[in-house]
Amino acid sequence: MADLGCYSPSFKKPSDVLRMRQKRARSEGPDRRTASPVVSVAGVRPFSPGPLLNASSRSRGGVKRRNPFANIENTYNSPKKRALSHTEGCDGAQDGRKAVTLAAVLDGKLREELLNTDQRKQHEIKTVAISLSEDDGLFEEDLFEPERSTPVLKSPEAVCPTAPAEVCLEFPADWSLKTRVLFTSPQSFSWAEHVKAQEEAQGLSSHCRAQFTSLPANIPDPRGCVELRCGFQQCLQYWQHPSLPWLSLFPRIGAERKFSGKCMPWAQDAALQQSLMSDWSVSLTSLYSLLKARLCPFFYLCSYQFTVLFRAAGLSGAKGITALLSPTTRGLREAMRAEGIEFSLPLLEERRKSKEPGESGQQTDSQHTVLNENSENEEEEEDDDDDDDDGGFSWLKEMGVQDKIKKPDAISIKLRKEHREVRLDHRPESVVLVEGPNTFTLLNFLINCKSLVAGAGSQAGLPPTLLAPTAFRGATLHSLKARAVNVKTLVRTGYQDVCSLEVTGPIMPHTLHALTQLLRPAQRGEFSVGLYTHEPTAVLNVPIGQSSEPPECVVQDLGRCGLQQSSVQQLAAPSMLGKCALRQLHMRDYSYSWKS
């Protein structure tokens, strides 16, 4: 290495450099930083985190590591602050006063900066207020009060007193079936527990006789109110057919796991299945007769494939009897057409009207169905029209390659035409609406339809479930399950006691409305509701049209249907939820708000 021209005699390895630095630090000792004068202030730490400047621990050996994230201008040892502190200390000594500490200096400077910033913001806000025109009405002459340091902006309610806050005294009708409803409130639900035998009997009697007791607007002691407890038992009642104690017959769609392993004596007995279907047909016919006479407002037919909602004339804004069936398949719709049932697809019809707002032609329900199912995509419709033409492959002849190209056969063309109809199966858009006399044809179709009952599986041979708010032939009176629980929930300030009331079972629209009417005075106008919807029935809220008759006439016509006047008035209004269902319902200060 010495013979090379680039060799340096003073070159040292990194390990030698580190060893020299450690040796120098040990030889200098703790007096290394005494060379630079530092003004010692009580209670102030040096530049790097560690003991105080005047602490006794500073006499120990070693040097504290410098904080790499600190800014030299923000520390006490910065040159500017060191000079400022030294000057003030000298002035204070000459005047005979105590030296100003660093904390006081910093506090004064910070207060001065905040004051300047506040005055600057106030000046900007005043400038903006002056730039606004006098017609805006948001700022007035007395807007900036002398007692306040910040401007006060008047609320729109104070400026426009003619626009009061909207108060919703009623929530929209929800025609979907609920499997569970959870009420929560800061007030206790203890009044719903431990019902006496006499109160339960009175509630059952009132339900069967359709007798309703009006409650006061405010109930100071709900636990001691007999009318409230009897009315609560009355709201929990419903009628069902068939009734098998060891089987839960709702819901039926997607409930194969619940039925598996249960006793099914009719599964292998054809005579027993025929007897069950015969009894079920009598019950369904009785329900339709009550519906036509407006003695029953509505009822549900729940099969293992679809759900049918029959409604009396006047409900949901309809002039006649209506039936909604969902979900459907192409095979079911073709079978209904073959039986002469005229129906429409409301959601597809609404989509078609939104695409063609200027169309004013009148067509039958069956023609609407064909057009609706073929108008989901305009581009694909044009392609199909080209295929239907006789000259669809004329361009092949012009090119002279008609013999080399294999044309699609008739089966392929037919499958392509049916692709859109099949694509609607089991979707919300497949909901079918039947109106007027066609509902009676639909009733006969359902009684004679062999695919209405499962031929195999855990639900084989079991007739569909019929649910109604009033009694009918072959029906059994059932009661929803209610349970009150007090729980603690985590909020911002800690844990808060929340009272809850859980109701499970097939909850129909009138039951939800009746329960909210009871809870309004019992919970002092403050509660929340969590709604768990049977999803295949959420689309039953689709609007079907508006009635020209006023709601008062509808309420009078359905006065003997077995529901309260307020419930009938709510169900008579046109549906406004579309294909959605209520998920949350809140009452604050006797006013409703909801989410769907």
Structure notes:
The chain is of the alpha+beta class and 596 residues long. Among the domains are: 14-77, no CATH class; 105-159; 170-236 and 480-542 and 578-596, no CATH class. The protein is 36% helix and 14% strand. The chain has helices at 14-28, 79-95, 102-131, 156-159, 197-209, 226-235, 256-259, 270-292, 330-338, 346-355, 365-373, 378-388, 394-399, 410-417, 419-423, 438-448, 509-522, 551-557, 565-572, and strands at residues 178-185, 237-241, 298-302, 307-311, 322-326, 432-435, 465-468, 476-479, 481-491, 494-507, 526-533, 584-588, 591-595. It has a seven-stranded antiparallel sheet with strand order 6-5-4-3-7-2-8. α5 (197-209) packs across α6.
**Biggest sheet, in brief?**
7 strands, antiparallel
Strand content: 5-15%
- In which order are the strands of the major sheet placed? 6-5-4-3-7-2-8
Mean pLDDT: 77
Helix count? Answer: 19
Rough shape?
A: extended
Radius of gyration: 41 Å
Low-confidence blocks of residues: 33-39, 52-61, 96-106, 124-165, 359-391
Number of β-strand runs: 13
Helix/strand structural class: alpha+beta
Fraction of residues in helices?
25-40%
Alpha-carbon distance between the two ends: 86 Å
